[in-house]
Amino acid sequence: MSETLGSYLRQQRKTKHLTLRDAEEKTGVSNAYLSQLENDKISAPSPTILHKLAECFGISYDQLMKLTGYPTTEQTKGPSYRSASEFENLTLEEKEKVREYIEFLKSRRIQQ
Q1: What are the Cα distances from residue 104, in Å, to 76, 99, 101, 111?
Q2: What is the architecture, at CATH level 2, of domain 5-75?
Q3: pLDDT tens digit string along 42-79?
């Protein structure tokens, strides 16, 4: 069974030794609303609420967004972010050839 937003929030709140009322005081979000979140009765809270909870519990805002089903910065990264890790396994000669090819592609773009 995959982790839900509610179970994750409950776990994080308890890890911080906070009651629902403590969390309410720190976030301004009512304890009744927090209880509904933790019991998965509310599945899509606003990003503003998630941000308040992330700050209160000292957890990743992106993780809360992901558990809620909202797009995250991790999901929006394109191939250019991944390509850097692909260069790690290349030899110096191979890296130079890749750089040369990139320069070649750029020069073709300029000429067009």
Answers
A1: 28, 9, 5, 11
A2: Orthogonal Bundle (1.10)
A3: 988 999 999 999 999 999 999 899 899 888 776 545 55
